[in-house]
Write the structure tokens for this entry.
Amino acid sequence: MELETALHRAPSDNALPFYIQPSLPNNGSASNILVSPLPRFTLPFDYLTNGADGCGGGGGGSSSSGSSCMEQLLIHCATALETHDSTSAQQILWVLNNIASPDGDSTQRLTSAFLRALITRAAQSGGAAPPCFLQHFPCRTESPTRRLSVIELAGFLDLTPWNRFGFSAANAAIAEAVESFSVVRIIDLSLSHCMQWPTLIDSLSNRPERAPFIRLQVFSGTISGNLPEIDMTYEELGIRLTNFARSRNVGLEFTLISVDGIPSLMKELQNQRLEIMNLRLDTMLEEALVVNCQMLLHYIPDETLDANSSSGFHLSSPVSACASSSLRFELLKEIRSMEPTIVTLVDEDADLTSTNLVARLKSAFNYLWIPFDAVETFLPRENKQRILYESDICHKIENIIAFEGERRIERLESKARWVQRMERASFRNIGFSEDTVAEMKSLLEEHAAGWGLKKEDDDLVLTWKGHNVVFATAWVPT
């Protein structure tokens, strides 16, 4: 009964843990920090204590009741922060810190990540928790900018099928779409450091006739995503990829296109469209155009365009009915104007676009339990790979919960919403062949038993214990 004990225990004057109460001088800065024992917990959470045996986890694996209990505490804490109820927020943070260990089971580790995110949010607001509050509520995280070798990154990606699923589904659809072409141009809109392409090159090299020549155009600097960095420059990566293709008797031209943010990306896509159109007019060459959108489009802001903004974009409120004013829609229209042979769109199947913190927290909690639960099934708690893998999820959660406006870049949308966007941009879903479905099932057999595959209309969806995780779609212009 860890939660019940935490809720009703009144620490003595010299007992730990402490909560931090800022004492603000006249200028409003939190320069004077008083450390005081936490007062008796008096919030109306009696309904939580009735069945709270599993709320604190305890090493026997996560439970649904424990997960629900943790979620409710996080929701109450977020509500307190949003209503500027500093006293209640501090009390709930203290309770969560006692029952959500970063070294515990998957539910505790998940909750610990959300706890840190809420503390970061509070620290930034200058309300419930000043910056020094963070050291009293540790969450085991590594630097989000750590760099891995190619081999280390491949091992990281192979821990779960979270990324490989999208790579494999997209590659299979691409290989079928470009089957009759001698030249294939790929515009790679992803953050995967080209880890997707060796498999496609290998596949194309096995053609009965001569393999196609590949023009691979990679955009770098588009966004800082959640995947670890690679310990080499993209120029070096391009050389290695070109050499690999040569070893498979495939010609490869690697082009790096550096961009600086979303406006720069849009401009470069316009330049690519003009180049492609001119090439089609000047030559009789039949060139397939592939646009690969792999886990990147959800970083494109989902708010409205503003002609008066210096950047051309204004982050105000998410677009609902008026898709024509959405940045994401404008990007899709630009891609559509290129007349691509195929567009592959792969992303995480969750909705994290709400401007309401509590709603966003609920959605994130009920989606991001999946990676914590998945690695719990095959990696011990002190395993370094697991700790690094979970640290990336911690940073993702922190961005979703702690930040707003331009700093909040993790803005996932559901598959249903992306399907609507693609259809409005005049694309038609072409689905996946039975051979691709069989290949994906074979891929999942290499991983834990909880992973599954299902078809939703024309799309493929990766699942964990029946819950949607990642979707893969393939499109052609209407």
About this structure: The CA atoms of residues 161 and 444 lie 7 Å apart.
